[in-house]
């Protein structure tokens, strides 16, 4: 190793570390042209003072749904002073009051009075302001499934989508963001009859697309020659397992840290492999965080046992949640479809075939994610 290969203590491999942060909104946003166009088309009426079309963005984690909305929101706000856009993270704001408070803050720059004020009052203030200022409101409900889990989806959607019936002149459009269309099972017919969204699918990225996107991040995030093309390919192969781009961006960042820790000017394959141990959890934890409470509890029971008979599992689940067999059976099937568990029949049971249920991931990883 020549002296030149060694990083001085105040030197860094990162040209612009912000490019590798999870909330960074890149200029280069390829392979989502059709989705961006569909969004633009749906929101276009708002630019002319009309109610936009509602949208439903559906796709697995890390496929660019939130970023696509944020890019379009930025553009809309820059060009259309008559349009207000608000993104609500329903994992954080999961009640009707929390959602309307988020909107209120965006409109007025301050929090609404929070003690003793009814939702209706704040909603009225918001809608009256929209009507009198002739502004169109577009609300993106990210991780909309959380409103279903908490039992608030119908009232939130109903208030927003039918506001114009009670307050003539109100113009509100809703963009729902979910991982799977079945996440919206809870919406009732009163909501569905007005939601009628434009469906915009976000499929998983393929390896060439992942490579293209990560190359761009590398170019702006690192100094030249910090990472070789071969190692980028290695990172792509890791990302491809789940299609979650977040894992790729996190891998780049952690690999860079690992190389810096060794005082090296370049990233090695060991740096990447070591980084993957942590980065892979990002996808698993994000996916697990999207499960409903009973789904998480069942997964935890399975992970704690490693392997368990269906009958035994049901007993433990019923004790813990008081939920009946139909719910149990439905959740087992969903966890199986989502690839968290194997639930195969053995044929070895005393009374015929028995189902043995086990996690597909390291139990320790699953439990770590559930603790977060
Ligand atoms: N086409 C793209 N070009 C550049 N970067 C992208 C692209 N798609 C996604 N990303 C990046 O991948 C990361 C994950 O994207 P994003 O959060 O938008 O995904 P998501 O589909 O909303 O995920 P989740 O469902 O987990 O919220 C972000 O850092 C984003 O910048």
UniProtKB/TrEMBL annotation:
| AAA+ ATPase domain ranges (all copies) | 51-217
| Name listed for the protein in its UniProt record | ORC1-type DNA replication protein
Q: What is the lineage of its organism?
A: Archaea, Methanobacteriati, Methanobacteriota, Stenosarchaea group, Methanomicrobia
Alphabetized HAMAP family for the sequence: ORC1_type_DNA_replic_protein
Q: Where is the Cdc6 C-terminal domain?
A: 290-370
What does the protein in this record do?
A: Involved in regulation of DNA replication.
Which Pfam families does the entry link to?
AAA_16, Cdc6_lid
Q: Where does ATP bind?
A: 63-67, 205, 217
A GO molecular-function descriptor: ATP binding
